[in-house]
Design a protein that fits this description.
InterPro entries: Acyl_Trfase/lysoPLipase (IPR016035), PNPLA_dom (IPR002641). With 972 residues, this protein is of the alpha/beta class. Helix content is 37%, strand content 15%.
């Protein structure tokens, strides 16, 4: 192993001051180890020349290491590489720089630079010894100090006294008996043996030095307290003569290994013996903690939950559950259910098996006290006891899903009347998203953990029977792949003009030219007023486009039927009949009958279909406004991962009482209650009255809340209009100069401004003004321009003409085809096979390109054949491309296997973006889903950064071992 391969820590200089640089290159030797089975022990050697000679003599270092000065190097003892507990050793000379610090301009390749939040008057030598104490020591079993290299015994005395007095508390939360031992080596020429006298003499001097620095009288007891906070023992050891034969050094090597094994055994007993994967992950987090110069010590238990923190809403969810439990059942029912849920959340696959009592006290004890209704913490104590019991069972069996399901299913009778749309009772940590046939609900993470993924369709999960009541469940739950982008469709309102969006969807379906249902091409669907009817028909009822066109026209006929007064319609009396109808409409508060629209919607959408229980494969949002203050509301079949701020300008309607959830027809009725045509419904009215007749902004805002997208752009946004009238600039100027007296009055002007609320084209143009040019082609607007007067919202006679106008519009430009191309490209997305591996100067990434259409879709085989016939390629960068499919892939797809294209590529840094494009089946190369994709973000989205596991990560991603297959070692 060369110097460049073992360099681990160095100092650097940057604009922010002194930097600590972590080099990932030493981790490459991990590829020859079992990351999850082997549990390393690390010996730290701190010194200079004598230290280097001892390393060679004890066979830890087989050859001289040049350039070690100013570095910490990480190496492995090759004699123990196959042992269950291999020995790593840290060769430490960070305190001994030999050259000016490198100037770090950015994190590049395998080097991660972090600014040190220490005062600028701290020199690098002092910081080096702080790094040894706070960063190297917690991961070490033995720390070796070489007196001859560190200024003799007085120098070692100064180092130890500084360590003990500069850190009043322990640097970590590891159990005290597991702290490393300190071995101080003197070159006395004697045979290697423990020198009790020298050790006592040194400890006496150390006691005086520490007491003097603290202004106290030296006491052995005080020194023991200080030592116990950092180390499990201090010994002074004599070195053999450096020129002596190898056999004189073998006992010293044996002693070092035995001392290390003794500490490692204690760590095993206290459940803090970490695997190689966890060792690496903890060290990354410990570096971040050290660089921030925090007053608190590094907590291994807290760090294990850093990528997967305990829910901030856990108190809310636990309280919601207990409100459904009779007080008499708290101890017998609530205690085991809550304890099991907390264990299920705390010990996902991949989590280190910390002492359950420590875990509970760290994360849940105070929370449980807040929900404990008893004068004495009886409930909390019961949960704590059950938590420890279940956690031990989980660690012993490694099947936490089965244990949790068995505990929940013990209470089938109790679950019969307990339901919630706001709390997932499986984990008590998140809001539910998926409703089973029995009306019990679960969050996405629990669905993935406890469900069975269908072979015929990736990211579709089946739970055969309810985990709560045990009743059969016939529903499958389709989730958006974590690494796929968001495809949104938005339909604005406009009465009978809602036929325009539907007609454009029909044209789009023709342009896609696949035997698929339109709902297979979208993840998010929002609609307002008549647009809500379109969205609910296509995505809640899953009508085909042709079926939806037929139902829409039938609904229009039923909804906009003349009102019957006194048992009959008024005869046609021209102007007089319109006046009479107007007077009666004012008296009835609507032009059309509420009973008529209610009956029509119930016939179309059913009377008892809950919107929240609608298929969660597409997230549906129906827009309405309240009658009291015209605030915007969203009726949805989802909750979303993030809570909305009270000041966000809208709210999701989600009643705490599940019995108050709106049915699909009720959501449609509320959204389409446009005055003066229809009366309000249950305190809600037309969604356009709040300024969101075109709810495109709501859809964009909501994608962040649903999938935690962090403002990342969607794959595609399709906005469907209901027509607009364009006034030429010259005509507008002319009209402004000859405005009539009546139109210049305040009431007409206010009315005109009010009508502008409903102009969806204005909202579209406002959005376009905020888009960066390179993002503009992700957004599509399909609309028609009215050359004459705009049709009335209830004029059903114009429906055929509007459909024909859409056909002309679609044939006159290529916007529909561009949208279809974008949707075809977004069918493909990327997944990594494992964490990228650093190899020489780049990271090697193994991945596969997958397709949103599974084997169960009628369109996959047609799409694969089209890829083959057009010789379509995936372009990995400007220089490399691969065929999208081949003969073998076609055979596999015909045999019922999913689309999967293996690819291998290299990146110089994990912060590099990856932009895979596809050609052949589209008019020009287009980026596949979620691209450009920063590799670091891809790793996080896929859950590969969670070395300690988390719920919601598919099983085939959990323990991906970072090993180089032989065929990849040769990839350039």
């Amino acid at each position: 192993m060369t110097i460049s391969e073992s360099t681990w820590l160095t100092f650097g200089a940057g604009s922010e001051g002194l930097l600590l640089q972590e080099h990932h290159r030493p981790y490459t030797f991990f590829s020859d180890l079992s990351l999850d089975q082997q549990k390393p022990q690390m010996i730290a050697f701190i010194g200079e020349q004598t230290k280097s000679q001892v390393l060679r003599k004890t066979r830890f270092g087989c050859r001289p290491q040049k350039g070690i000065r100013g570095e910490v190097q990480l190496r492995i003892d090759f004699e123990t590489i196959s042992d269950p507990e291999p020995v790593f050793f840290a060769d430490c000379e960070l305190h001994n720089p030999s050259r000016p610090m490198t100037i770090a301009t950015q994190n590049f390749g395998d080097v991660m630079s972090r600014a040190l939040a220490f005062p600028r008057d701290f020199d690098s030598k002092f910081l080096a010894y702080q790094i040894y104490l706070k960063l190297i020591s917690p991961f070490s079993t033995v720390i070796c100090l070489f007196a001859d290299d560190l200024g003799g015994m007085p120098g070692v005395l100064d180092i130890m006294a500084t360590w003990l007095t500069s850190l009043p508390e322990s640097s970590t939360d590891l159990p005290i008996p597991t702290y490393p031992k300190v071995l101080i080596f003197k070159d006395t020429g004697a045979t290697p043996e423990w020198e009790d006298g020298a050790t006592k003499k040194f400890l006496l001097a150390l006691s005086k030095e520490t007491a003097g620095r603290q202004g106290e009288t030296p006491r052995k007891k005080e020194l023991d307290v200080l030592l116990a906070k950092q180390f499990s023992g201090v010994h002074v050891l004599s070195l053999p003569i450096l020129t002596s034969s190898q056999r004189n050094w073998t006992p010293l090597r044996d002693r070092l290994l035995q001392e290390s094994r003794d500490v490692q055994k204690l760590r095993q007993n206290h459940q803090v013996e970490f695997s190689i994967r966890h060792f690496k992950a903890f060290f990354h987090m410990a570096i971040r903690h050290f660089c921030l110069n925090k007053d608190t010590g590094f907590s291994f238990i807290e760090a294990s939950r850093a990528p997967n923190p305990v829910s901030e809403d856990i108190l809310v969810h636990l309280t919601a559950f207990l409100q459904n439990v009779d007080r008499k059942q708290l101890l017998n029912f609530a205690v085991p259910v809550v304890a099991s849920a907390l264990v299920f959340d705390s010990y996902p696959p991949g989590m280190h098996a910390f002492d359950p009592l420590l875990v509970f006290r760290k994360f849940f004890y105070q929370t449980c006290l807040k929900i404990d209704p008893y004068k004495y913490p009886q409930l909390t104590k019961g949960i704590e006891t059950a938590f420890c019991q279940y956690a031990i069972a989980v660690v012993d069996s490694s099947n936490e899903e089965l244990i949790h399901k068995n505990i929940l299913s013990r209470f089938k009778n109790e679950w019969e009347d307990i339901y919630s749309n706001t709390t997932c009772f499986c984990c008590m940590a998140r809001r539910p998203e998926n409703t089973m046939s029995c009306r019990h609900t679960m969050c996405d993470e629990c669905t993935i953990s406890l469900g069975e993924e269908l072979e015929s369709h990736a990211w579709t999960f089946l739970i055969p029977s309810c985990i709560f009541c045990g009743k059969a469940n016939s529903k499958n739950f389709s989730l958006k792949p974590r690494t796929a982008g968001v495809r949104s469709i938005i339909a604005e309102g406009g009465g009978i003009k809602g036929i325009i969006p539907l007609s454009f969807v029909k044209e789009l379906e023709t342009a896609i030219a696949l035997p698929t249902n339109i709902h297979e091409h979208f993840d998010l669907a929002f609609g307002s007023s008549s647009g809500a009817l379109v969205i609910l028909g296509l995505f809640a009822n899953k009508w085909s486009v042709d079926e939806c066109l037929t139902h829409f026209q039938e609904l229009s006929q039923l909804i906009f039927r003349k009102r019957v007064h006194f048992g009959r319609k008024f005869p046609a009396l021209g102007y007089l009949s319109r006046v009479i109808e107007g007077i009666l409409s004012i008296a009835a508060d609507s032009r059309y009958s509420s009973a008529g629209i209610n009956n029509a919607l119930q016939k179309a959408f059913g009377t008892d279909s809950s919107l929240f229980a609608a298929d969660s494969g597409v997230k549906i949002g129906v827009i309405a406004t309240t009658t009291d203050d015209c605030s915007t509301c969203i009726f949805a079949n989802y909750n979303g991962q993030e809570a909305r701020s009270d000041s966000c300008g809208y709210r999701i309607v989600r009643p705490e009482d599940k019995r108050k959830e709106l049915f699909v027809w009720q959501a449609a009725r509320a959204s389409s209650a446009a005055p003066p045509y229809f009366r309000p419904f249950a305190g809600y009215q037309d969604g356009g009255l709040g300024g969101h007749n075109n709810p495109i902004n709501l859809a964009i805002w909501e994608q962040d809340k649903i999938w935690n997208r962090s403002k990342k752009q969607p794959d595609i946004v399709l906005s469907l209009g209901t027509g607009f009238m364009q006034t030429a600039k010259e005509e507008a100027e002319e009209n402004s100069q000859r405005i009539s007296f009546f139109n210049s009055r305040c009431v007409p002007r206010l009315f005109a401004s009010f009508l502008n609320f409903f102009v969806g084209e204005s909202r579209w143009r406002e959005l376009c003004n905020t888009l960066a040019p390179h993002m503009r082609d992700r957004y599509h607007r399909l609309n028609v321009e009215f050359l004459g007067s705009e049709p009335a919202l209830d004029d059903i006679q114009v429906i055929p003409g509007l459909r024909q106008q859409v056909q002309w519009q679609a044939s006159a430009n290529d916007e529909v085809q561009q949208c279809a191309d974008n949707l075809l490209a977004c069918l493909f997305y990327i997944e990594l096979n494992g964490v990228p591996i650093f190899d020489r100067s780049t990271f090697v990434c193994q991945a596969r390109i997958l397709c949103r259409l599974g084997p169960s879709s009628n369109g996959l085989q047609v799409l694969a054949a089209r890829l083959r016939n057009s010789r379509a390629r995936f372009h990995l960068d400007f220089h490399r491309s691969v065929f999208a499919t081949d003969a073998d892939m076609l055979i596999d797809i015909e045999a019922g296997k999913p689309f999967s294209k293996d690819i291998i590529f290299r990146v110089r840094s994990l912060t590099d973006p990856l932009d895979i494009k596809i050609d052949g089946i589209v008019s020009r190369p287009r980026s596949i889903s979620n691209c450009p994709y920063v590799i670091e973000t891809l790793i996080k989205d896929q859950g590969l950064d969670c070395a300690f596991g988390r719920r919601g990560v598919k099983r085939n991603n959990v323990f991906s071992n970072e090993r180089f297959p032989k065929r990849i070692r040769r990839v350039e």
